Amino acid sequence: MTSERRSFAVPRWIAAMAGFALGICLLAGPGVPLVPGEAAGAIGNFTRVAQPSVTPGRPVTVFLLSALYCPFCAAERWALVDALGRFGTWSSLAPAESTSGVEGFSAIPTYNFVHARYTSRWVAFTARDVQDAQGRPLQPLAPNEAALVNRFDPDGGIPFLLIAGAFAEHGSGYSPGLLVHKSFDQVRSDLAAGAPDGAAIRHEADIVTALICFADKDTPATACGTPAVRTMEAQFH
Amino acid sequence: MKAALALAFSDRWAMISGAAVALIAGWLFAMSGQMLATGQGGGVVLLATPAKVAIFAGTALLAGVAGVVHTSALRLRLGRSGAGITATGVVFAFLGASCCTPLLWPAALSLLGVSGVTLLGVNAAIHRWFWIPVIGAGLGLTAGTWQALRAIAMPCAVVSDRVDLAGRDRNRRPRRSVALSRE
Questions:
Q1: Nearest to A108 by CA among A76, A65, A66, A156
Q2: Least confident of A16-25, A182-191, B66-75
Q3: How many Å apart are CA B2 and CA B15, to the nearest integer?
Q4: How many CA within 13 A on the CB side of residue A160?
Q5: pLDDT value at position A7?
Q6: Most CB atoms within 10 A, among A132, A175, A184, B57?
Q7: Structure confidence at residue A51 (pLDDT)
Q8: Which residue has the higher pLDDT, B128 or B42?
Q9: pTM attached to this predicted model
Q10: ipTM attached to this prediction
């Protein structure tokens, strides 16, 4: 009898482990809306997680959580520089690259936001790079930023982009693989020339632009009036 | 110990279970480390360096060996020693599989109420100290396997004890009568 009881005890342990593994697998499925009932609208990799919180006359907030080593963050920065450049002015933007080998990608060219400045009448942009290229702590989060991460990025994943406190993107809008073996200058000239190689970046930039325009009632017209942005924005109306 | 290993690997059900454990572990590591992605053409793309793939293939193989030995020990009803250590090894292996994008492991912790900022710190620490969980996984799985092998080997040692001491201590009983009867 005793040995029978023993033979039951261990399968229970195995069942617990199997249940745990199954639970983890289920969690890997399609994302659960962070705000039930408010995730109907989705554009690109963005999900609508709340109602846009924009005070008239105040700029739309854009918050980026990233790290310098991360290839996905490196890819997303190109689109952000392009999109936010339509609403304001960048200065002190320096070239950088992600750490080679992370997630199987070689070094991905990008911009370094750590010392960059951005001024705009329509957008208030904050970027936090939490780790440098070697993985050392870099920029700590302010309490309000930590609250945003706790609420909208519950897995603590990077990159995390939040527009108007309402549109969240986890991961990059396109694959860093598109930038592999390209130099910073090559990517920049592809974008400037409207080359096909820059199409994915421009598409993601258009999405970011459309979301800002949606939150800010289509101002300014110079940024919000382009056909691509209008088409994307229409998905939300 | 060699005899215990041979005994474990001669058990067909233990081998099947070990293979299943290795395959499931490999799949879970690939998923939790987000090593696989869908490519532009719809195919599957591997997002990991050859070194990382080798490390996790090795860890999955080790989990498979632990699976064979534990199943064999269970079938001999000697099961539990080493199971806890093996579980620790599996946990470390999951930690080691994590990297910079949204993860399976943090998703599970998040469900348990751990905050996003704490998980961000966990992810950062895992990225920075990647080798610690990997070494922990290797040690945990090896130690768990060794413990289970010891449990399998124990009855054999008792048998030889009994034979050696038969003339001197007839009242001594084998410690693992269940296992002996199985053999």
A1: A76
A2: A16-25
A3: 16
A4: 26
A5: 43
A6: A175
A7: 85
A8: B128
A9: 0.70
A10: 0.71
**How many angstroms from the chain centroid is the CA of residue A174?**
10
- Identify the H or E element spanning A128: strand A123-129
Which residue in this structure is represented by tokens 């999900």? A47
B108:A102 CB<8 A: no
Query: Is any Cβ of chain B less than 8 angstroms from the Cβ of A91?
Result: no
Angle formed at CA A165 by CA A163 and CA A166, multiple of 5 degrees = 80
Parse chain A into domains and list their residue ranges. 8-22+40-236
Give A-chain residues touching B107 at CB under 8 angstroms: 24, 27-28, 155
Give contacts of A 114-173 with B, CB under 8 A: 130-131, 134-137, 141, 146, 149-158, 170-171
Question: Residue B21: phi, psi to the nearest 5?
Answer: -60, -45
**How many residues appear in chain B?**
183
Token representation of residue B30: 């690939």
Residues facing residue A96 across a β-bridge: A110
Give CA separation, A171 vs A66, A168, A184, in Å: 10, 10, 21
pLDDT greater than 90 at residue B113: no
Alpha-carbon span A234 to B78, nearest angstrom: 66
Phi, psi torsion values for A67, nearest 5 degrees: -145, 150
User: What sign does the CA torsion over A176, A182, A187, A188 have?
Assistant: positive
B116/A149 CB distance under 8 A: yes
Closest A-chain CA to B121: A156
Q: What per-residue string of b and e applies to B147-178 under the rule 16 or more CB within 10 Å gives b?
A: bbbbbbbbbbebeeebeeeeeeeeeeeeebee
Q: Which of residues 162-221 of A touch B (CB under 8 A)?
A: 170-171, 175, 177
Please report which helix (H) or strand (E) contains residue B109, including its range: helix B104-111
- Whether the CB-CB separation of A228 and A206 falls below 8 Å is answered with yes
Residue with tokens 């459309």: A210
For residue B38, what is the nearest residue in chain A, using CA coordinates? A175
Cβ–Cβ below 8 Å for A149 and B107:
no
Tokens of A133: 């290229």
Interchain CB distance below 8 Å, A158 and B101? yes
Alpha-carbon distances of B98 from A97, A156, B44, B66, rounded to whole Å: 21, 12, 19, 22
Residues of chain B in contact with residue A74, where contact means CB-CB under 8 angstroms, are: none
